[in-house]
Design a protein that fits this description.
Blueprint lengths: L4 E7 L5 H11 L5 H14 L16 H6 L6 E6 L4 E6 L7 H8 L4 E7 L6 H12 L4 E7 L8 H17 L4 E6 L23 H7 L12 E3 L2 E6 L2 E10 L1 E2 L4 E5 L3 E9 L8 E2 L3 E6 L10 E3 L6 E12 L11 E5 L2 E14 L6 E2 L9 E14 L6 H4 E5 L6 E10 L2 H4 L9 H7 L5 E6 L6 H14 L4 E5 H4 L11 H20 L3 E5 L5 H9 L6 E7 L2 H7 L4 H6 L21 E4 L5 H14 L7
Parallel strand pairs: 1-3, 1-4, 4-5, 5-6, 23-25, 23-26, 24-25, 26-27
Antiparallel strand pairs: 2-3, 7-9, 7-15, 8-9, 9-14, 10-13, 11-12, 11-15, 12-14, 16-20, 16-22, 17-18, 17-21, 18-19, 18-20, 21-22
């Protein structure tokens, strides 16, 4: 039997995707008797075809989908003919479910893009086609569906094809096969239509049975992302994972990335016994001929054609969250089995899916697509996505909610990530701090505007100065006069504001200073970024806890009044959120402590933690 074909159906809402797949299952005799009985019963009860078989119901398994007559999840189905086996993904057409479509496309060899013959090429048709192109699918079937509703008009079919092909050429989809059909009636799905004698091409199933796909995974260079280091006892050490591409045999050489060390495969171990050969898609445990330090997320690869290693990349990203992307914010980036902290350092541009125009952007919202540079906390092994989906595709995870917010494709490494190295220096942080008779640290004051952060920080610095300690105070307003004068008060600008200050604070700690940072810093993620830049014990989060009502009463700059009148946008506590610390090192209750008393509390904390040293 021919090679397995994975394909996806996509397009706009109600173009007939589920009906088409239901028809394929029905005509290929892949519907069991009990399923057929249920289909007949459900078609009469909730179908949309006046009691006749509603093939879409074979796919619309969720109750919500049956009630609405739409697909809102990815449904996978297996079927086969005498010539080939298939796995098809039915994906939703609504724009808000674009993330589901990407899920289905990530493993597909071919896309069937449906168009309602009555409506022609729509925005969502273009969006899904563009995503298909981005995800590396090069074989496309343009299924012009519901031809029965336009009296099988050839001229209308030709107009739709010309319109679609013009767009497809712009996005690199050259292998487009157009088929006029009626999924409901069965025209040109598995049987040739007698109503469209003007069409002399293959039926959909004939095309799917014979189409040649792109390079098969087993023909690509060997890659295995280590999922688990299997060490049940001292006599066995194996590295378990799924072969992402290529083939492997005992005796073959492999290279471990990112370390770059080589070894030979000793055994291919499975639950059912050792193998003499493993190929793409197989789960296996490799043992090596000698000990190498290997961890989860490392990549075993062919030393003749290994992946590259880098920590900065040019990427294409598809944002999939209701919350906007904030460049500079730390996220988790998962590529293969490796998860590292990363951030979008810059948005090059976002892309209008209708016109393919490149637009300037500071942030991304749900379903927007952009070219972006990202930076990771450590180097990883990778292949460009167009060479290997498994080692070139990644997802981005929100650190606070653990939700997947982005799908990304690595295009290439940024050369500066290969050329820039950390310069070793003779005089280090401990030496500088010892000279000052103190331990370097950051005291990060956070709270609402008017909470008293700057007042307390200033009082503390005077006390530390009187004790002969070396300090520097970074105040939010002062920094915005220079370093951050180009930033506004949008969420994206606030994130960048704190990122820059956190990096400056790190440099000052390296200089051996006690750094006092007084910023509203409303988002937990950015305060956590600042903490993670430093060594354990060097970061003290001081929550100046003043209720909003009290902060408004003080209102030393009149900002709250302006915000209430709508004269200031994105004002924390009024029109922009403040995320209070959950586990600060110190909470200052300003209803009980004066600024001088608060400073004494912080001094006591620093003394208890042995940060002030001796003379």
């Amino acid at each position: 039997m021919a090679h397995l074909l994975r394909f996806i159906t996509c397009g706009s809402v109600d173009d007939g995707k589920s009906t088409l797949i239901g028809r394929l299952l029905y005509d290929s005799k892949m519907v069991f008797d009990d399923q057929l009985s249920a289909l007949e019963r459900d078609s009469k009860a909730v179908g949309t075809q006046n009691g006749a078989l509603d093939f879409a119901l074979l796919m619309d398994g969720l109750a919500a989908e049956r009630e609405q007559g739409i697909t809102i999840d990815v449904a996978y189905r297996f079927f086969s003919t005498g010539a080939r086996t298939f796995i098809v993904a039915d994906t939703p057409g609504h724009e808000q479910y674009t993330r589901n479509m990407i899920t289905g496309a990530s493993t597909a060899d071919l896309a069937v893009i449906l168009i309602d013959a009555r409506r022609g090429v729509l925005t969502q048709t273009r969006r899904h086609s563009f995503l298909v192109s981005l995800m590396g699918i090069r074989k496309v079937v343009l299924a012009v569906n519901k031809m029965d509703l336009i009296a099988y008009d050839q001229a209308a079919f030709d107009r739709i094809c010309a319109d679609y092909r013009a767009f497809a050429r712009q996005i690199g989809l050259d292998a487009v096969s157009a088929i006029p059909m009626s999924a409901l009636k069965g025209d040109n799905v598995t049987a040739r239509s007698t109503a469209m004698n003007w069409y002399d091409g293959p039926t959909l199933i004939q095309h799917l049975e014979t189409v040649e796909t792109v390079e098969r995974p087993h023909e690509a260079p060997f890659r295995l992302c280590v999922q688990w280091v299997n060490r049940p006892d001292l006599s066995f050490r194996g590295f378990a994972g799924t072969v992402a591409s290529g083939e492997i045999r005992p005796g073959d050489s492999v290279r471990v990335l990112p370390s770059g060390r080589d070894a030979r495969v000793a055994r291919l171990v499975t639950h059912d016994g050792d193998l003499t050969h493993a190929a793409a898609g197989q789960s296996v445990t490799l043992t090596l001929d000698h000990e190498i330090d290997i961890a989860r997320g490392d990549v075993l690869a062919s030393p003749l054609d290994p992946p590259a290693v880098a920590d900065q990349f040019n990427t294409t990203i598809i944002w999939m969250s209701e919350d906007p992307l904030l460049p500079g914010r730390p996220y988790l980036v998962k590529i293969g089995t490796k998860t590292v902290t990363g951030t979008v350092t810059s948005l090059k541009h976002k892309i209008n899916v209708n016109t393919l125009e490149h637009l300037a952007a500071k942030t991304l919202t749900l379903n927007e697509i952009a070219e972006a540079n990202i930076q990771l906390a450590q180097p990883i092994a990778f292949d460009p996505y167009d060479k290997n989906r498994e080692t070139g595709g990644f997802i981005v995870i929100d650190r606070m909610t653990n939700a997947t917010v982005d799908a990304g494709l690595i295009r290439f490494a940024l050369r500066r990530s290969e050329n820039i190295h950390w310069q070793a220096v003779e005089v280090d942080k401990p030496a500088r701090a010892n000279l000052k008779h103190q331990k370097a640290c950051v005291l990060w004051f956070t709270g609402l505007s008017g909470a008293g952060k700057s007042t307390i920080a200033n009082a503390l610095e005077k006390k530390l100065f009187g004790l002969g300690r070396h300090t520097y105070l970074l105040d939010g307003d002062n920094v915005r006069h220079g370093l951050n004068r180009d930033l506004g008060f949008t969420d994206a600008d606030r994130v960048e504001n704190i990122r820059r200050v956190a990096e400056v604070s790190k440099l000052m700690v390296d200089a051996g200073l006690i750094v006092l940072v007084s910023f509203i810093s409303p988002f937990r993620a950015e305060r956590e970024l600042a903490r993670n830049l430093l060594q354990p014990g060097e970061f003290f989060e001081v929550f100046v806890d003043t209720p909003l009502v009290e902060a408004e009463k003080r209102d030393p700059k009149g900002l709250y009044k302006k915000a209430r009148r709508g004269e200031i946008r994105n004002f924390t506590g009024i029109s922009s959120p403040y995320e209070a610390p959950q586990n600060p090192e110190l909470r200052i209750d300003t209803s009980r402590a004066s600024a001088d008393e608060a400073a004494d509390l912080i001094l006591r904390l620093l003394t208890e933690r042995a940060m002030l040293g001796g003379h």
